[in-house]
Queue: 4 jobs
Job 1
Amino acid sequence: MISLAGRDILHSWGKFVFTGIGLGLLIGVTLVMAGVYRGMVDDGKALLDNSGADLWVVQKDTLGPYAESSSLNDDIYRGVLAMPGVLGAANVTYLTMQVRKGTQDVRTMVVGIAPGKIGITPGWPPYLVAGRQMTRGHYEAVADIASGFALGERIQIRRNTFTVVGLTRRMVSSSGDPMVFVALKDAQEAQFLKDNDAIWQSRRRTEANPAFNRPSVPGLLDAVIASQSSNAFVNAVLVTLEPGHSADEVAESVRRWKRLTVYTRAEMEEILIGKLIATSSKQIAMFLVILAVVSAAIVAFIIYTLTMDKIREIAVLKLIGTRNRIIASMILQQALALGVIGFVVGKITAAFAAPLFPKYVLLTSTDTITGFVAVLLICVLSSLVAIRMALKVDPAEAIGG
């Protein structure tokens, strides 16, 4: 019966090959979309791993610093550092923005890291693929290689120009934007400091307000003006723990005594994956369902067409006493052969197309196996219509034809 199915496939090999290629392209798109979702999850986990933190201290009642805005005074880390079980604490800022590269803008996440050393101070990029780490307190940057920046290149962040002194890899935000690391003071200026025109306008409004010109409030006007040019804020404090201390216990202690929101690694991962990319994952899931339905329709249509083309041959087989099980097996084998051809084409297409996507696409062996089983199942279900029709063929049609 395998020979019978094979002979029929060879008889209409052109239709099989072109249908398999079309089905394979759909399967390739499906595998890539599953890879996009896996890549988003991997980006989120890489973001947490590369931060080097065990705890994230953020503004009270926020989901910061990645899912929501968070603002803390930059001296809070001192109090956190004095808490039992805390090994290290460092300020950090995150700002997604367009960084100017010559005449072009590159969307990046600018990360402000506190002075320290790699492997000791959390927030620093854990490794470099080229160049060196920052050694100056201003105007040096380390960029992810996905940004397209090169060593020695000068980039513009707000009003200041930075020189790229190092390149790293897989340092990205949860949305896949490459990171650019700069000194904390430079990042604070970029994120929190108002430009000169805004400060000038704010001073004019302050001076025009009679409430600040009363003698009963000495020095208040100067204090307000000074606060308008202050940038003593950060988005979060990254905390590392001493060996043997529970992250949950230390986090609860910081919450109680510092009245701040603290997230452990597990809680931050839930925010990134369960909340930040939840909508994207639902969209991808809907596309996968649509592609599966379309693939099933294509397989069902081509198998049905091939079966209709050999109605007389099926009638002859029935006339000479061929069992229904054998006829059904022939149609099922053709459907499975079509699915195998489509999956092979799809897997090759996904492997070559994945590196071309702007977002990170992670193709896993688990998704490949699951996809292969799903394709075979779709082919089996799609062949049922053709099998049902073939089994209803009257043997008399062989004589009547």
Note: Residues 2-43+279-400 form one domain.
Job 2
Amino acid sequence: MVCDQADRESLGLVLSAYEKDTIAARATALGKGGIGIIRISGPDAGRISKALSGRIPEPRYATYTRFSDDRGDTIDEGLLLYFPAPDSFTGEDVLEIQGHGGPVVLDMLLNRVVGLGARHARPGEFSQRAFLNDKLDLAQAEAIADLIESSTEAAARGAIRSLQGEFSALVNQLLSQVIELRVYVEAAIDFPEEEIDFISDESVKGRLEEIQGTLASILEQSREGALLTEGASIVLTGKPNAGKSSLMNLLTGRQTSIVTDIPGTTRDVIGEVLQLDGIPLRILDTAGIRESADQIEAEGVKRAMAAQEEADLVLHLVDASRDSAPADPGSREVIVLNKIDLVDDISRLPADLPRISARTGEGVDQLKAKLKQMLGVAETEGGGFSARSRHLSALRAAHDALADGYHVLTGQQAGELLAEELRACQKHLSEITGEFSADDLLGEIFSSFCIGK
């Protein structure tokens, strides 16, 4: 079970609230198409099917039929698919109407369905019902939205793996280890007459270290998964005419930014999205950093500084033909030596810094490799699963709880405090799959889904 009935009641998500509630929505995108689908879920799905077509089709068989209005006139003709509860996506009676994909005819069909007693579904409500009926856990439900929103093939494959439960299985396996250790520790505390001296038991320390190692591995994989799902933002910065706009155009493969010999050409933040080995990146070209009396350029510099604060990574370009590299780059900053085609002897340049020519393309492959390294992308075969910032936060919190538990076990020999840290770790891990979730979090997650999913 993903969450028991008591959990649902405490969250205000009692399934009985849905028992008389049937929802409907378009499941295909707005606009014209060859086929359009209306999806219905709830106890009235069968009745609506009979009123609309004169029949309740055989479960899981496509049935060709006419769809009629309240006067018996034909609205459209197409296929009906019926999935009775509990063997459906939502766990409720589900009906899918497949008609022609014109927006007018689909509106007529949806209005007819609503007139028969259904209501318009909220964003993500079908997936939310699947979660509440234990058809999916929360990480799997989020993977549906991630799959729809995928901007790269790697992201789509990662979302499929999460939807199939790969990420959840790793988290649940870790959760089982934490619970097992917590039960052992709390039993020793609650039943001292059994004389279980777990403080001096090296196996407890060993099991805790094993759990920490497993969690660290999942956290590392999740960082890559979050990159696949949410991407990263990279800001190009440096002095005027350092070659930022030229590098922007080289990376994107098109003339995105204006390139001239006049310093201060770029006045605003210019963004483009590209892929780096399947990772969606948003590259931001910014105004050259310098003092300026020009009000517009000064505003551009101000925006450039703000973009750097919010970026995942900053590429600080240096004109290697005339300037030296800054001595103390930040933790999120990569110094890039540009214009090496104008340098007589590149061997005098620092070998540990990327050396490129944005004009000729020399060294750009090495720069891309450096970006992947800085973003924490490993060279692994087969790809990983999708993840979100929410998952990373929960995993980091669980990691911190385990670290604190290890400290109180080895440093203070405080069993009660170890049990409390294990409880906190269990809670944080449970937030990922939805076994423990606040109602406002669920609302925020599902409201970001598209309508009809």
Note: The first strand starts at residue 23 and ends at 26.
Job 3
Amino acid sequence: MAVDLHYSAYDTWVASTGLPVYEGWGIHPPDLKLAPWDLKGMDAAILHLEAMGHQCNDFVLEMPPGGSSKPIRQMHEELIYVLSGRGATSAWLEDESSKRTFEWQAGSLFGIPQNATHQHFNGSGDEPARFLTVTDLPVMLNMFHSEDFIWNNPFNFRDRFGDDGFFTGEGKMHEVREGRTWWETNVLADADNFELRPWKDRGAGGINLQFNLANSTMHTHISEFSPGMYKKAHGHEPGAHIVLLSGTGFSLVWPDGKNWKGNGGGFDEVVMVPWKKGSIFVPMGFHQHFNTGTDPARYLAMGFGGPRYHVGRDAMGTKYHASGADVSTRLGGFQIEYADENPAILELFEEECRKNNSQSNMREYLKQFRDVK
């Protein structure tokens, strides 16, 4: 019998860690049970979401009260959202003279400069600190299929480390166009309340801002939209890891048999993913976000490739996708306009609002785009 030589370095590594692995369309990391991870000196779990693709994964990491992680460097990128706790992180290059230390709290978001040595410290003596991270470890480990290359590589990315101010909340705003303006930095002290910009073409009174953290090839953006409203549906391949920062609602995903056909079809295969602060999910194909609450709904999206560095496919903002994310499918883009959406969307949304004892504001709003009784 022939030997099957097909091999995934990432899957093999996951099995070797002994860490719990959680799967599903949507997962609530604050509730997960973790296990010790000697590599980082933290408790951890690995998340494999239904539509995660092959580029990125997620970790949930936790330090005990007064605890710290081990110093480590890693030849992959990592974006970290703080679910709970407060503390500080130090990062440095070949020697500690370059060390920069910044503080964080629940709601902070930061990027680890690639392959910089870093260490986390829990600033509370009473409560644990828990992180949710998105990394491009799967693509990096599968590409080089060498654990030694990933965790014992001496190369220093000096251009990734950033200005001193990037570790203290300073940054650079790059004005591009509505929906594509981005803020360059390493740390957002309060991602839950960071000031965003209008993006009218996505609907629902939405605001948005793109980010480039630690000069990463990973993409980040934060979007927010109004109470009792829903955004226009749009489509892309898997890879956008969505973290719910605030609000009540749900997302619909219709994955066309788990293949993105790019035409808005397949609505008979709808998956509903409920929202809860701190939850994470990955949409695939066409998907749409709904706010059934009385407060604005805000979410964070992270994934491989973006408007600044066009790597990967159409998951999170290659040049091709970035130009069509808010352009109608009728014009060759990836967005389903309100005038073209399935009429059942409005009825479903209003029913969900009633269940939540809230008021839909969409019926009157949609009259400017199509006939609505």
Note: The helical segments are 9-17, 137-144, 147-151, 158-161, 319-322, 344-355, 362-366.
Job 4
Amino acid sequence: MPNVTVDLGNIVVTTPQSPQPARPPAQPRVAGGGAGAGVGSDTGITLDVKVPRYVQLDAIEARAGALNVSGIDGPVSIMSGSSDINVSRVGSLEVRARGGEVNVEDVGGLVYVVSTSSEINVKRSSGDVRVTTINGNIDIQCVKGRVDAGTSRGKITLTNVGGDVEATTTDSDINFTGAIAQNGRYRLKSMEGHVRMSIPDGSPGFTANLMSYNSDAVSDFAVRASTPRPDSQAMRRVEVRQGDGQAQITLDSFSQTVRLSKLAPGAAPACR
């Protein structure tokens, strides 16, 4: 049986009826409590819930503490206040949170996370990933589908993304590392941070437009056309074309440097 492990003071878990024979409810374990300890105690509770792998978790609501969900074949939906959320090996995932850290691994389908103030980490997803937070860093690794990532105050790190990418942030850096797809679309934009993209030298054909309004645009690949800054010899707009030029890359920063770099052979990070 998979585990839904909850460690918090106040939680609501809703699941549909299972065709399996019902088991007697497990007694909650009250951390540090003696006789008479209960939900209202300062020590909180730890609740372990075991369900069939194929169950659909329609709604898990967590207001504080930590929430861990793993081993569910179907979709999982979570609503959280300030809980730290850890999810692994689920069919698909939807998270709506106000705070806390969100860590996601090994999802078979769509990952959808919306948060007010969260660090969001996603590893190994077979579907698309769509994550948004107002305040917090975003780290996405080893995703086979498309990635849409946005944060107002935080850094975005993208590693080994198989599908198209749309990433935007206001006041921090964006870093992309890994291969690009033939006919892929990549748009990375920051207002106040650096924008860096590192791809293998032997990448499929692409056309890249690098733009920085108040700093430099730099490419390790041969430049097709460029526009210099008025006050120096540095470039503020660069166009690069490799091969058939089918993949489209846009790197854009208002205040800082944008850079398109070559990855040395064997330097591309591996998915684990």
Note: Residues 253 and 260 are 13 Å apart (CA to CA).
